[in-house]
Write a structure and sequence with these properties.
It is a single chain. This protein has a six-stranded parallel β-sheet with strand order 3-4-2-1-5-6, with helices on both faces. Helices cover 43% and strands 14% of the residues. It has one domain: 3-Layer(aba) Sandwich (Undecaprenyl pyrophosphate synthetase). It has eight helices and six strands, in the order βααβαβαβααββαα. With 247 residues, the protein is an alpha/beta fold. It starts with 13 loop residues before the first strand and ends with a helix. Strand 3, helix 4 and strand 4 form a beta-alpha-beta unit. The structure holds 3-methylbut-3-enyl trihydrogen diphosphate (2 copies) and magnesium ion. One 3-methylbut-3-enyl trihydrogen diphosphate (IPE) binds next to strand 2. One 3-methylbut-3-enyl trihydrogen diphosphate binds next to helix 1.
Length: 247
């Protein structure tokens, strides 16, 4: 498989990935889980490169969920340290490739050093014109929906919004992902077929792909195969196949 097998006129605009399987990847090799997370960071670099090469505008990566705070303290601390060093090591690369860094999730939960590194990198890359790379950190769909409902309820309480004016558009515009478009493709690596509290509202019509490959092994070829399958799916959005074909 190569990029020439892909129809470049029919590319997804937004790919979201649940990067799962790092721990099992390490365990299979008789290594500590952290080695899997480190290898996972290398996989991120590869996939960011491929996505950029294809000129896909949005990539969103689930890096740490709200529920991941319940992991052993040593793993959480090591992941936060890895996050800081990955941002430091990749910043030049992001600048060269015109990548704009973005974050969703409860950033206030992150250790101070992570917050500072993230904010600085987001600021430094903010004028880049290529891929928007969104990291979901301390993120969960239910956290995001609760935050949205709280904000909307506050507007109603203050008399700034009438309950009858709450629309799907208003809800989408109040989510943490705004103004990103909804993902066209959601990939979960690592063999599980579940969403684990990722982008619950946004994936209403997303094409889902569950692959056995563990995240550290996920390579350009795996992404290209998924994009090719995506291009062969018919997205009907509730309509009939005939309606879709006629327009
Ligand atoms: C995904 O890999 C990375 C994070 C959730 C931070 P896991 O660490 O969940 O790997 P497995 O599922 O245990 O193999
Ligand atoms: C989902 O993976 C979260 C991330 C990839 C960041 P988990 O490994 O936390 O999901 P579960 O616990 O298997 O559902
Ligand atoms: Mg997992």
């Amino acid at each position: 498989m190569s990029i020439s097998d892909i129809d470049l006129t029919h590319l997804p605009q937004h790919i979201a990935i649940i990067m799962d399987g790092n721990g099992r990847w390490a365990k299979e090799r008789g290594l500590e889980r952290m080695y899997g997370h480190q290898a996972g960071a290398d996989a991120v670099r590869r996939i960011v490169e491929t996505t950029g090469k294809l000129q896909i505008p949005y990539l969103t990566l689930y890096a740490f969920s709200t529920e991941n705070w319940n992991r052993p303290r040593t793993e959480v601390d090591a992941l936060m340290t890895l996050l800081v060093s990955a941002i430091q090591n990749e910043l030049d690369n992001l600048m060269q490739n015109q990548v704009r860094l973005n974050v969703i999730g409860n950033v206030d939960d992150l250790p101070e050093a992570c917050q500072q590194e993230l904010i600085a990198a987001i600021h430094k890359t903010s004028q880049n014109k290529g891929l928007t790379l969104t990291l979901a950190l301390s993120y969960s769909g239910r956290w995001e929906i609760t935050r949205m409902v709280t904000q909307i309820a506050q507007l109603v309480e203050n008399g700034q919004l009438a309950a009858k004016d709450i629309t799907p558009e208003k809800i989408a515009a109040t989510l943490n992902t705004f103004p990103l478009p909804d993902p066209d493709i959601l990939i979960r690596t690592g063999g599980e077929s579940r969403i684990s509290n990722f982008l619950l509202w946004q994936i209403a019509y997303t094409e889902l792909f569950f692959v056995d490959t563990k995240w550290p092994d996920f390579a350009e070829n795996d992404l290209l195969k998924i994009i090719l399958q995506f291009q062969n799916r018919e997205r009907r959005f509730g309509k009939t196949s005939e309606q879709i074909k006629s327009c």
